[in-house]
Amino acid sequence: MVTTVYLVRHCQSMGNIQHRFQGRFDAAVSPEGEKQLALLGLRFRNEPIDAIYTSPLARAKATAQAVAQYHPNAPLVEEPGLIEIDCGEMENLQLTEVAERFPVVARHWDETPDLCQFPGGETMGQVYRRANAALDRIIQGNQGKKVVIATHGGVLRNLYARVSYGSLEGIRHSKVFGNTGVSTLVAEDGALRWEAVDDLSHLPEGMRRPPTDFAFFGGDGREPV
């Protein structure tokens, strides 16, 4: 039995364009994000969808709702396990502030993200376990169906580490996902495989942000989460 999961990173938020380490800060959708949502919804308009799951944060819920508008019979479910990393004291700081105030965590983010321990928040190991547990619950509850998951960059990197590398340590090599990027994951006979990763074909060329591995030390200023 084949289960298809469309994993979608949320649309662009104001925190993204302001270069903030958002975490669970509930930033509003940006004007560019609204355009992305309209095009994402059209992408899925004629695709059979049985259920839609979303992180509780507004930027993810707006992304899920863009798909749901064309699928009124598909239940839209909030799944707490899909929420972005709890960054604790680092939440919503400017990226330059993070590097200055929390250099050890920032260095881990650059080089060994699996070892990150966010002050007052989660460890990366905790994120990996709860995000993958949420994915497993969704797959188990939707055998043979097609579902959409709207979530966050940090969550997606942890899911990618598991599927592509089999462990948390794989996050050191994990893919970086664009806003509204669609990754198609297939579950069959207990195994997971990618059919597509970070597909932005629903956006015109001028709206596609090239995936960039952010680095606090020597980085280019793009948002990491």
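The record above closes out task 2.4. Task 2.5 opens with a second protein, given below.
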Amino acid sequence: MYDISAFSIKSQPLILGIESSCDETACAVLRGRKILSNCIISSAAEQAKYGGVVPEIASRMHTEAVDEVCRMALEQAAVRPHDIDCVAATYGAGLLGALLVGLSFAKAFAYALNVPFVAVNHIRGHISAAYLDKPDLKPPFITLLASGGHTAILLTESFTQFKVLADTSDDAAGEAFDKCARVLGQPYPGGPSVQKLAAGGRPVINLPSALVKNSTSTRFSYSGLKTAVINTVHNAAQRGEQLNLADVAASFQRAAIDPLVKKTVEYAQKYGIRTVTAGGGVIANDYLRSSLSALCASNGINLVLPEKKFCTDNAAMIASEGLNQYMAGNFSGLDINACASIPL
């Protein structure tokens, strides 16, 4: 009988985390915040053939990989299944079919072992990646979240509570990077491709800032920026002009990232908080990392940046957030379903 109320909480639990929200099938084992293993089987190479993630292909490849990646994680961690104290898995947001694979596997795993199960919000996982870099990190702090699905600045008030200070009114930053890469003829995934192209260019093209002006609250908008890049490329082609695509990439990167960095530090100053963290795939961008590091340093703010491998989708961040919920006793029932969209 699987009874949530019967589970006790250990001080240093062994957490198994599973992530399958997009094209990465991942599993990690953590002892508290200590990473014992972090394994990924990616379908990115297969998805690149189509210029982006095809949900049906992602779901199929998750089904083939989930058992194998979990075996790999347990072996690398040198633990047995029955050593696990808690199973955590992403239940949203993401591709519904992909989520269902990892979530179903994780619930079955927890049921078989009769251990607590924690359904993890993928976005909270990105926030919790900061604890992997600095296990003794404690809230409050300001978090810059920039991924393919969300863009926001958060006040992380405790291990389980945060307040949204700013968010996007349309596209997310990561989505804009992917679409910009496509119009510039760059391969998937778009983030690394745009960064590589931008390294050879200069930000000399005037593109609209991602920060919405004349707003009573801080809002970002990447739809207009994305459209401006498309128009710049198409108009040049119609005029028969030779456009420096590296300059376009560098200009887009500046317009997309500078407002995020600026507003993050402004919010830290406004709330009198001396620590800033960041999470999400866009945080792996070198221009963002160097810009945010420099601005935080010049303002006496401590910056905690996860390693790049913990910015993109991974299971260690899911296990890290699973630990937060486990310690708070926020266990999930096995009837919880996957959700393609979850509000911040």
